[in-house]
Amino acid sequence: MSNIPLDKLQDWSKQGHRTVMGDSLVMLAAEKPEMVTVTADLTPTARLVDFQEKYPDRFFDVGIAEQNLIDFSAGLAVEGLIPYAVDMAAIVPMRPAEQMRMALGYMNLNAKVISIEAGVRFGPLGNTHYGMDDIAVTRAIPNFTVMSPSDPLSIYKTIFAIAEHDGPVYVRLTGGPGFPIMYPEDFDFQIGKAVEYKEGSQVALISTGSMLGPAAEAAGTLEAKGISTRVVDMHTIKPLDTDMLDKVFAENRLIVTVEEHNCIGGLGSAVAEYKAGVEGAPRQVMASLGDEFKKIGDYKFKLKQSGLTAEDIAALAEANL
Amino acid sequence: MGTNTVEYIQEKCAVMRRDVIEMGYVAGGRGAHFGPALSSIEIVASLFFKVMNHDPKDPRWPERDRFVQSKGHACLSYYSALIESGYIDKKYMSTFKQDESFLSGHPSRNIEHGIEISSGSLGNGFGVACGMAKAAKIKNENHKVYCLVGDGECNEGIIWEAAMNAAKNNLGNLVAILDRNGVQLAGKTSDIMDVDLAAMWKAAGWDVAVVEDGNDLNQMIEALEAMKNSTVEKPHMVIANTTKGKGISYMEGSLNWHARAMDEEQYKQAVSDLEAAE
């Protein structure tokens, strides 16, 4: 793992999460000989062409067959390889959920599943291509770690960190071309340890994935109005960083969870489940995609439609404080 | 294991059938999948006592051949082979399907006792086995992967996803055996999904052989040895025509004995049938 210079981060920010992932897998392969990449006919889309060219003997395309993407990867993991299975969040985990449960979760195999285009960035393609339920599906599988990094550097760090974690991991990637750099410099990144991105005593905005960008922007808006706002980057949704939540519960009056996911089963649910057992914990409201199949539109439209812009998040917090 | 005589393995098959009945009866009202366990006895015995290169004293031996029972509901044939070859002590037989037992109704990964992977969610054991065979090739290891699948199991989409990919990867180190007993949970396979399995496996790119009587040890061993020694760089499929519930008079070919609980009278009859055959 190396320090990533700012100009590289800027390029990654411009290209979007797929390129960050594709480049990071190539970089990881150089350091981790037992790591291999598996995909289901998504080589160019998932920016895996470089990996395929550099490591043809460590790259496998199972065809448009997502159940086998997981079972095949499981078989590789049984024999000690570390497969990174790459697909699209609209399809994986939902279609091979049972393979992920039976093969990866049940046997606690050291396999990684990465889904690109989680959330609604595929806007005009329609609801068939939105990854709205992947956290809910994977979170309910024992042994799985579930992650959603927020920006170029944290995606890179996630891809390296999970190689050192012995067990199944699901990573959802959000943030298309132009997604902001939230971490311009190296920072402490550990699986299961949330990042306190900004301190604040009244509102706590807890986001996951690239929603950190609008959450941080919303915090600026709230601060300008005199509302002290904490921002937490909950890049690991399972296991949840309950130490960080305990701190938030003790110090903040309102929690706003922010996620590009269904309001059921995602980050908001995870926080609420933990909060249910904590006496005197603050109120929580959720910014999410809701629980419906909405009309199509481009990415900006889709985020606005669900109240996931910085402006909407700030307004939600202010209205509930 | 390769030096065992057919007579020796025949005796093992008789003991394994008795083990299946004993364990299934112990399960009481929890029931057992008797039919598919009994149809697959000769297949599993051929592998464990003749064809496979393995060492029950060293279950983690890296060079061992791997066995995956994808039709995990037939676990009693698998467990009986593991018991009779020394991976599982006989004392555990009474724990089948009991509280806290590792002998669950479908295999749960337990390398120490010879269970390579968890299986029983149909189709997935086969998919994982294909990945295991590919891993052996990637790592330049010479062992083989044997995988038992069911005919009803071939209804599953994952079977064909994995079959195509195994052929694409020229997995000549993979030998699958299809227990063609003709009966699945809700009826005859010919009524539920009447397909030409040999033609389908060939079309998927596999090297296919058909065994006329998969409960005939000589035929079964001959077919498996041929596939084991084959230099054809395609995954191998042995379609073994078997009899559901083989060896128990009232179970043979029956639609009622895919899975059910056995009462005392049925148990006595089963024991009597097996004793008469010895």
TrEMBL record, chain A:
Keyword tags: Thiamine pyrophosphate
Entries under SMART domains matching the protein: Transket_pyr (SM00861)
InterPro entries for this protein: PDH/Transketolase, THDP-binding, Transketo_C/PFOR_II, Transketolase-like_Pyr-bd, Transketolase_C
CC cofactor: thiamine diphosphate
Record carries keyword Plastid: no
Pfam families: Transket_pyr, Transketolase_C
Name of protein: Transketolase C-terminal domain-containing protein
TrEMBL record, chain B:
InterPro entries in the record: THDP-binding, Transketolase_N
Domain Transketolase N-terminal, residue spans: 20-270
Cofactor: thiamine diphosphate
Keyword terms of this UniProt record: Thiamine pyrophosphate
Taxonomy, superkingdom: Bacteria
Cited Pfam families: Transketolase_N
Protein family membership: Belongs to the transketolase family.
Entry protein name: Transketolase
Species assigned in the record: Candidatus Thalassospirochaeta sargassi
